[in-house]
TrEMBL record, chain A:
GO terms for biological process: mitochondrial translation. Residues 106-180 are annotated as: Disordered. This is RF-1 domain-containing protein. It is found in: Mitochondrion. Residues 118-134 have a biased composition (Basic residues). PANTHER family: MITOCHONDRIAL TRANSLATION RELEASE FACTOR IN RESCUE, PROBABLE PEPTIDE CHAIN RELEASE FACTOR C12ORF65. Its main location: mitochondrion. It comes from Aspergillus avenaceus. Keywords: Mitochondrion, Transit peptide. GO terms for cellular component: mitochondrion. It comes from the Eukaryota.
UniProtKB/TrEMBL annotation, chain B:
Keywords: Methyltransferase, Transferase. InterPro entries: DNA_methylase_N6_adenine_CS (IPR002052), N5-glutamine_MTase (IPR050320), SAM-dependent_MTases_sf (IPR029063). The keyword tRNA processing does not apply. CDD domains: AdoMet_MTases. GO terms for molecular function: methyltransferase activity; nucleic acid binding. Coiled coil: none annotated. This is S-adenosyl-L-methionine-dependent methyltransferase. GO terms for biological process: methylation. One of its GO terms (cellular component) is mitochondrion.
Length: 180, 367
């Protein structure tokens, strides 16, 4: 993703596109680009720093950096206290709020929903691939095992396996009646 | 301070055995949990950094490191001294014992002041028909700079919009100056400050209260070493010591601050002031000196952090009388409340919250 955006920026700024394109190795993941990140107007927001009332400043060294955003038109409230930095918390809260508002607004067509949908699809196809792979492997094993029985070496291997396995059933034969 | 209930302690202990220790200083469950998370992250990163560096001298694993951190926090050591830094805007300000930790209120005042400067420049640019692009130097002086946080954040905010800046931070304490220079280098290394900052931000020793030299003693003294500096400054910003000796003792100043942070940066002392003024309040001494300094240096914008609303009113009166004495022209005085949300306390901003007094000279053309 990152490589792709870099190459995109370079190609848009500079002329020799054919040369620069060779730097981008990663294939295009999706055909359609994601919709742009949603933005909110500053005028719609009430930003408050939740630090508790009372004296502060030099008198008290408060470590609370929680930021709360209220979106006035929808009444949505988002709070972030992930980091020690207020500006960082505000950025995080803004992003969260913008995502949520877009989801309310557009539903399935919102950026967050599309992203989640893509992630889900990717996971599903991955699962599908692994399932197919193991199914094929099993099939191959079955195919290989059939001719192996005719081979001498393979049968010896099997015999070893059998001899290893034989003691285990023999113990329960003695012990099971006593245990029961 | 209300006692923490047994139930709260038990609840905290159930979540993490170290949480009750942090509760002693934080007093609330949520902030204790946040601090534990930050301490834990730091302990983990410190241990992993040490393992990469392969220095065998520190025997602690991250768990014991975290435990010792929590114990010192429970004794009241400021979190920033334990972790060694504090975010300030987009900067990372290093903190050391002996230098005041930057406060969130100072951060919001600095952001707002920078916004004001940028607005003024934009307006000026429009009136000049986008000609100027400000070729002249904008000179900012930060008195009582401490960690250098205000000076550095100002540079970070203004440098993208102003071609030439010169920012001077002045402090009495050599320890603070050393740390401020360290912070400058640290943030340039991190990339949160541009390389220009190394040339445009200075820190120098000076005593705001010692004005026996006559006139703008500190400013003139330091100007000699600064190239391109004329005998003025455009913006004067300061977070001076503003706690009264009484408020330092009577419990309004928290124990942690009282014990672990430098008193020099908190309570103004009469002994160090050169001239005797008939001020009834010791905590206002710095404002008196800084405001007269600003008139002598003909600063166009002065931003001063104050402890509470009453102090801000007193500072407003001081600046009025001084403006009269210096015969300066039109002066607009505003008081900014620090909490940017006026609805938090039912529309009334609390009287004991810090605020800022802002003086703007309207008579001088900002050209």
């Amino acid at each position: 993703m990152f490589l792709r955006t870099i190459s995109h920026n370079l190609t848009s700024n500079l002329r020799p596109t054919a040369f620069l394109r060779s730097f981008s190795i990663s294939p295009f993941l999706t055909s359609k680009p994601l919709p742009p990140r949603p933005k909110i107007n500053d005028t719609d927001l009430t930003v408050s720093y939740l630090k508790g009332s009372g004296p502060g400043g030099q008198k008290i060294n408060k470590t609370n950096s929680a930021v709360q955003l209220i979106h006035k038109p929808t009444g949505l409230v988002v709070k972030s206290q992930a980091t020690r930095s207020r500006s960082q918390n505000e950025k995080i809260a803004r992003q969260l709020l913008a995502d949520r508002i877009e989801q309310l607004d557009k539903g399935d067509q919102s950026r967050a929903a599309i992203k989640a949908d893509r992630a889900r699809k990717k996971k599903a196809s991955k699962l599908k691939k692994t399932r197919r792979k193991y199914r094929d492997l099993e099939k191959d094993q079955d195919h290989e095992e059939l001719p192996e029985h005719e081979d001498g070496e393979a049968s010896e291997d099997h015999q070893e396996l059998v001899t290893e396995e034989t003691p285990t059933p023999s113990i329960p034969e003695d012990s099971t009646p006593k245990a029961k | 301070m209300p006692r923490i209930t047994n139930r709260a302690i038990l609840k905290a202990h159930r979540q993490h055995p170290l949480l009750p220790l942090l509760l002693r200083e934080c007093r609330s469950h949520i902030s204790a949990k946040n601090e534990l998370r930050w301490l834990r992250d730091r302990a983990l990163s410190m241990v992993s950094a040490r393992e990469n560096g392969r220095s065998p001298d520190a025997p602690l694993g991250w768990r014991s490191l975290l435990r010792s951190m929590c114990h010192s926090r429970s004794r009241g050591v400021p979190l920033q001294y334990i972790l060694g830094d504090q975010p300030f805007g987009d900067l990372e300000i290093l903190c050391e014992r002996g230098v005041l930790v930057p406060r969130a209120e100072t951060e919001s005042i600095t952001l707002r002041a920078a916004g004001l400067i940028l607005d003024a420049i934009r307006k000026q640019g429009h009136s000049q028909g986008r000609m100027g692009q400000r070729t002249r130097n904008l000179r900012i002086v930060d008195l009582c700079t401490g960690t250098g946080c205000i000076a550095l954040l100002m540079h970070a905010l203004l440098a993208p919009h102003i071609n030439r800046l010169s920012i001077l931070g002045i402090d009495l304490s050599p320890m603070a100056l050393e740390l401020a220079n360290k912070n400058l280098a640290h943030n340039v290394r991190l990339g949160s400050l541009s390389k220009r900052a190394l040339k445009e931000v200075y820190f120098e020793q000076g005593n705001v209260l010692a004005r026996g030299l006559g006139g703008a003693g500190i400013l003139q003294e330091s100007q000699t070493s600064i190239p391109n500096a004329a005998g003025y400054c455009d913006v004067l910003i300061s977070n001076p010591p503003y706690i009264s000796p009484r408020a330092f003792r009577d419990g309004t100043t928290s124990r942690s601050v009282r014990i672990f942070e430098p008193k020099l940066a908190l309570v103004p002392t009469i002994a160090s002031s050169g001239i005797s003024i008939n001020l009834d309040r010791q905590e206002d001494i710095f404002y008196y000196h800084i405001i007269s300094l600003s008139f002598e240096a003909s600063a166009k914008l002065v931003v001063l952090e104050c402890g509470d609303r009453l102090q801000a009113e007193r500072v407003r009166n001081i600046s009025r009388t001084l403006a009269h004495r210096y015969g300066s022209g039109a002066l607009s005085i505003d008081i900014w409340a620090c909490s940017s949300d006026p609805f938090a306390h039912g529309g009334i901003s609390l009287n004991d919250e810090p605020c800022a007094v802002v003086l703007r000279r309207t008579d001088i053309d900002t050209e």
